[in-house]
Design a protein that fits this description.
Helix content: 10-25%
Number of helices: 4
Structural class: alpha+beta
Order of helices and strands: EEHEHHEEEH
Radius of gyration: 16 Å
Distance between the termini: 34 Å
Low-confidence stretches: none
Strand content: 25-35%
Bound molecules: zinc ion
Shape: elongated
Oligomer: single chain
Length: 157
């Protein structure tokens, strides 16, 4: 179970050109053999990027503006058909974040084969998700949450 996720690098994943203030680019989340990876693409490199992404969202680089979490990216992830979705600690934390925003509801908590499994739901978005509660200490939990905020950052364009 890998907790490692990419941080945004502020540059195109293909041509490595830095994104300056005012630049618009596209972020995609891919499910690769080594885990979930975020890739950022400038307009020129996006066409040549692999198409089968779990989520895609637009980002605009703004001066003096704190990046916010892209909610559309999170919904795409939570609605994705990735068979391992419910086993990823990332998924669990995304669910907690959406519960805090009152956009997802915790329906039930069950114990399945020694693991705690929670069911989350948003009826209007047709999200019904069973998620394993990861065994994480408070420090690991806080670190992962911070990484996720960076991972899904973006201004909706
Ligand atoms: Zn590029």
């Amino acid at each position: 179970m890998s907790l490692k996720i990419d941080r945004t690098k502020g540059a195109c994943s293909t041509c490595e050109q830095p994104f300056k203030a005012g630049a618009k680019y596209t972020s995609r989340l891919y499910n690769l053999a080594e885990g979930w990876r975020r890739k950022d693409y400038c307009g020129r490199c996006l066409d040549k990027a692999p198409a089968e992404a779990i989520a895609e969202w637009k980002v605009e680089v703004k001066k003096h503006t704190k990046m916010v979490l892209s909610e559309s990216a999170i919904w795409q992830v939570l609605s994705s058909k990735d068979p391992e979705l419910g086993e990823k600690p990332l998924t669990y934390i995304l669910c907690l974040m959406m519960v805090r925003k009152r956009k997802l509801r915790l329906i039930s908590t069950k114990r399945v084969k020694g693991k705690e499994v929670q069911t989350y739901e948003n009826k209007s978005r047709k999200v019904h998700l069973k998620v394993e509660v990861p065994a994480l200490g408070p420090a690991a939990f806080a670190k992962l949450q911070e990484e996720i905020t960076d991972f899904f950052s973006g201004e909706e364009v």
